[in-house]
């Protein structure tokens, strides 16, 4: 009897982009179950709070019944082992991403050989999109609707709204 394959796609998702959403959709087709895991790092100061990111991820992942949202602290590989995940999904935008991600994949495989890393190249139209780029454009009032889902665009507008004078 075949065992269901569980994969984890982790990140800060601050904010979620169409590149992230593309990987979520593709992973949901490759694996029986996917956990979108928000990494919680006490030293980082994200734009969106953990509950805000959790809500945004739950909203955009609703169309994928085999996807759920969670969070973790500490090492991703330890989280994967606790959850019984068989794979870690990582997106690659450029060759520099690959060098960094391969190093992490090797370390993870050394620590927990039963969890493999699966690299998915981003679609060409998302290759340049990053959360930091989206934050930067949105912080100056720019239109990020080509880079992030509508619910995220609305959250960014609200986050960067300046109080009216009067």
Automatic annotation (TrEMBL):
User: Molecular function (GO) terms listed?
Assistant: ATP binding; pantetheine-phosphate adenylyltransferase activity
Pfam families noted in UniProt: CTP_transf_like
Question: What's the protein called, per UniProt?
Answer: Phosphopantetheine adenylyltransferase
| Organism this protein belongs to | Chondromyces crocatus
What is known about its subunit structure?
Answer: Homohexamer.
Q: Where does ATP bind?
A: 12-13, 20, 91-93, 101, 126-132
Q: Which Gene3D superfamilies match?
A: HUPs
Query: What keywords would UniProt list here?
Result: ATP-binding, Coenzyme A biosynthesis, Cytoplasm, Magnesium, Nucleotide-binding, Nucleotidyltransferase, Transferase
């Amino acid at each position: 009897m075949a065992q269901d394959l569980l994969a984890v796609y982790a990140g800060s998702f601050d904010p979620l982009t169409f590149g992230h959403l593309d990987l979520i959709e593709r992973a949901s087709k490759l694996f029986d179950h996917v956990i979108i895991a928000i990494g919680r790092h006490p030293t980082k100061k994200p734009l969106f709070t953990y509950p805000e990111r959790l809500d945004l991820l739950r909203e955009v992942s609703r169309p994928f019944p085999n996807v759920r949202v969670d969070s973790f602290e500490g090492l991703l590989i330890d989280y994967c082992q606790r959850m019984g995940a068989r794979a870690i999904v990582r997106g690659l935008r450029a060759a520099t991403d690959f060098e960094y991600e391969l190093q992490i994949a090797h370390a993870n495989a050394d620590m927990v050989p039963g969890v493999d890393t699966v690299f998915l190249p981003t679609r060409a139209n998302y290759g340049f999109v990053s959360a930091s780029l989206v934050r930067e454009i949105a912080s100056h009032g720019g239109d990020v609707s080509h880079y992030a889902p509508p619910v995220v665009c609305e959250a960014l507008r609200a986050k960067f709204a300046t109080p009216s004078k009067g």
